[in-house]
Design a protein that fits this description.
- This is Orotidine 5'-phosphate decarboxylase.
- GO terms for molecular function: orotidine-5'-phosphate decarboxylase activity.
- One of its GO terms (biological process) is 'de novo' UMP biosynthetic process.
- InterPro entries: Aldolase_TIM (IPR013785), OMPdecase_type-2 (IPR011995), OMPdeCOase_dom (IPR001754), RibuloseP-bd_barrel (IPR011060).
- Pathway: Pyrimidine metabolism; UMP biosynthesis via de novo pathway; UMP from orotate: step 2/2.
- The structure is a single chain.
- With 275 residues, the chain is an alpha/beta fold.
- The chain has a single domain, classed as Aldolase class I (TIM Barrel).
- The chain is built from twelve helices and ten strands.
- The strands form two sheets. It has an eight-stranded parallel beta barrel, surrounded by six helices. The chain has a two-stranded antiparallel ribbon with strand order 6-7.
- Helix 2 packs parallel to helix 4 and helix 2 packs parallel to helix 12.
- The protein starts with a helix and ends with a helix.
- The structure holds orotidine-5'-monophosphate.
- The site of orotidine-5'-monophosphate has 20 residues, from strand 10 and helix 11.
Length: 275
């Protein structure tokens, strides 16, 4: 999917919501634990309840690969289901990969070709040759970790060299490898106040912003500092939507939580003059 198609979908759905499919089998409602593939059935119900107000899904690969072959099967079925039922959706593999060149090539093939995701999250710290293999696929995207939402972000990402913080160096240097048509950046909603400075470095790129919901980030703050004239934001919530309720009502409640966020997003898009 290209930049224009992504923006068109945001305008059509009046939403820049990404639902994170961090589908921890231990948290899936009891009544689904008896079926053949509980994680797929859970995902399917969540997807059907949220797809109307969602532009992207982001399965976090850890929750699938931790279950071995069965987990990969749940993941593959989930991707196929979304592709068949909701072809307009942007699909992000949250895999946080990155390795020497020939290994990255295989990671890229695994997620962008074999599993046919639109995008993959990539860690930048092994540098150019670890990132560029992911950029060889037309209309596919690298989502590079810039400023993450967790406490540990302060361990390295704020280290300064000649007045430039490490995450700022990542934003600047990586623009030599890709552009706004094939590269996005992860910026945590918990650090929304940093978004203004980030926008000075990457005014046009899309940012994937996790951390609203369970991690406490504010959607309004994210939009205030991070939204650009093409929206430029994909805001993720995982647990706050998919585990809003642990009973048979889980999908209904997931739909409600997603619509609540979409309603707030619609207001923000209108305020910015995008709708
Ligand atoms: O790359 C990510 O998506 C990511 C980066 C980051 O800085 N912080 C972060 O929480 N994430 C992911 O976003 C999701 C957040 O989940 P919730 O906190 O449940 O909404 C998880 O899948 C995290 O792995």
């Amino acid at each position: 999917m290209n930049y224009t198609a992504l923006f068109e979908q945001i305008k059509k759905k009046k939403s820049f919501l990404c639902v994170g499919l961090d589908s921890d089998i231990a948290k899936i409602p009891a009544h689904l634990q008896q079926v053949a593939d509980p994680v797929f059935e859970f995902n399917k119900a969540v997807i059907d309840a949220t797809a109307g107000v969602t532009i992207a899904y982001k399965p976090n690969i850890a929750f699938y690969e931790s279950r071995g072959v069965e987990g990969w099967q749940s993941l593959e079925k989930t991707v196929t289901y979304i592709r068949q039922q909701y072809p307009e959706i942007f699909l992000i593999a949250d895999a946080k990969r990155g390795d020497i060149g020939n290994t990255s090539q295989m990671y890229a093939k695994a997620f962008l070709e074999t599993l046919n995701f639109d995008a993959i999250t990539v860690a930048p710290y092994m540098g150019e040759d670890s990132v560029t293999p992911f950029l060889q696929y037309p209309e596919k995207w690298v989502i590079l970790l810039a400023l993450t939402s967790n406490k540990g972000a302060f361990d390295f990402q704020f280290r300064e060299d000649k007045g430039v913080k490490l995450y700022e160096a990542v934003l600047r240097k990586s623009q030599e490898w890709g552009d706004k048509q094939n590269m996005m950046y992860v910026v945590g909603a918990t650090k929304a106040e940093m978004l203004g400075g980030i926008r000075d470095i990457v005014p046009d790129h899309f940012l994937l912003v996790p951390g609203v919901g369970a991690q406490g980030g504010s959607l309004q703050e994210v939009a205030k500092y991070g939204m650009n004239s093409h929206c430029g934001l994909i805001v993720n919530s995982s647990r706050g939507i998919i585990f809003a309720d642990k009973t048979e009502q889980f999908a209904v409640r997931a739909g409600e939580e997603a619509r609540k966020l979409q309603g707030e997003m619609e207001i923000l898009l209108k305020e910015k003059g995008i709708l």
